[in-house]
Design brief:
With 395 residues, this protein is an alpha+beta fold. The chain has a single domain, classed as Trypsin-like serine proteases (Thrombin, subunit H, Beta Barrel), CATH 2.40.10.10. It is built from 10 helices and 22 strands. Keywords: Signal.
Length: 395
């Protein structure tokens, strides 16, 4: 099945009669023929995006497709899900049928949006709402849980490699309780072919919007993934801050039609928590965002990398840089994380145990050309990618 081409225009009759006031001056919404009736194209000044609304009834209750049991309902189901493999550069850049010429690089002023803290009683709230999950995590921390003992050791590969250092993320209590680590989690989903998989994702808006990689949200040539569930601070499938369905998923039109690392970013607006109905920001707050920053940044990239552990995050710290082989708006960073780290945030102004700083500046897309397992690349957040996505989704 060929990727749907969203370059064509819709007639005025297909446009909604009343657009939200915030987007009225910015966007023209046109319905796109699709298997999903709620899929639409949104025209933004910086570039078009394509947005899918969640099926009615599936947002908070985590109802599976066609009324089937949800594939990610239990901790056991979630802990067994395999990561999404990376796409190679040839597959990333294969154009859709009838594609137009590549979009030019937009240049704009550097910007950032601040992160935010959850309410002061957030941990108390989470311990009350998800008491069983907290008991499970505390048993793991005490070393009495067999699941933790089998995968709880630090990899002997930890240390300095080619200008970066890797170390565990939310392996211990100090990091699954605190910022910024508790704002990063696993995004589970079903691919159009019916397989279950996961990526890493980041709460990066006070309006409960996730940022992740586009290939975790939309499979090129097939369409949107489905059954999205986000679990912040996921540890062995346990959800200390709850489980979140989705309201909408948004990708760049250029991702659908062109592919390429610079377009490999997406946003998902979350629904309220499955049992309590509260927004994710009530429990964990949110990370900041930045865009149009210099290519050279000192960042901490995060991910649930399967070559290290699928059950907790790892972190690589080091400088990002540009590569002529990768093209514009693509960052490279040394790191040996592989599958599962897709969508993991690259944080600049890294500030442990704080709700300030911690700006998501890129997300993991895939391996650097010719350097699999030693460095990876991500879309440099810019006016061309994260800005239209956030404007459309309401970050």
């Amino acid at each position: 099945m060929e990727a749907r081409n969203h370059n064509r225009q819709s007639s005025p009759a297909t446009r909604p009669s009343r657009a939200p006031a915030m987007l009225a001056a910015l966007a023209l919404v046109a319905m796109v023929p699709s298997a999903f009736a709620a899929e639409k194209r949104v025209r933004m000044p910086e570039g078009d995006v394509v947005q899918l609304e969640a099926p009615r009834g599936a947002q908070q209750t985590l109802t599976g497709a066609l009324g089937r049991p949800h594939p990610f309902a239990t901790a056991e189901q979630r802990s067994a899900v395999a990561p999404l493999p990376w796409l190679d550069d040839a597959a990333m850049s294969k154009p859709a049928k009838g594609n137009a010429k590549p979009a030019p690089e937009l240049r704009g002023p550097a910007g950032d949006a601040s992160g935010g803290a959850a309410p002061p009683f957030a941990e108390y709230l989470a311990r009350g709402d998800f008491a069983e999950a907290w008991r499970d995590l505390e048993r793991m921390e005490a070393g009495t849980d067999a699941k933790a003992l089998g995968d709880g050791t630090v990899s002997p590969q930890d240390g300095a490699h080619y200008g970066y250092v890797r170390y565990p993320g939310n392996l211990n209590t100090s990091q699954w309780l605190a910022a910024p680590w508790n704002k990063i989690g696993k995004l589970y989903f079903t691919t159009p072919s019916g397989g279950s998989s996961y990526c890493t994702a980041n709460v990066a808006s006070g309006n409960s919007v996730l940022i992740t990689a586009a290939h975790c949200v939309y499979t090129r040539g097939q369409g949107f993934n489905s059954n999205f569930v986000f679990v912040p601070a996921d540890r062995y499938g346990v959800a200390p801050y709850g489980k979140y369905g989705w309201q909408s998923a948004t990708v760049l039109n250029n991702w659908i039609n062109d592919g390429g690392r610079r377009w490999d970013v997406a946003v998902i607006r979350l629904a309220g928590e499955q049992s309590s109905g509260r927004p994710v920001t009530d429990y964990v707050g949110w990370l900041g965002r930045s865009w149009n920053q210099p290519y050279v940044q000192y960042t901490y990239s995060h991910g649930y990398a399967s070559n290290i552990s699928t059950q907790y995050t790892s972190i690589c710290r080091g400088y990002t840089y540009s590569s002529s082989n990768e093209g514009s708006d693509v960052l490279v960073q040394g790191c040996d994380m592989t599958y599962g780290s897709s969508g993991g945030g690259w944080l600049r102004n890294y500030t442990p145990n704080s709700h300030s700083g911690n700006h998501v500046n890129a997300v993991v897309s895939g391996p650097h050309i010719g350097d699999f397992g030693q460095s990876y690349v991500g879309p440099r957040f810019s006016s061309s990618n994260i800005v239209p996505l956030c404007n459309a989704a309401g970050c």
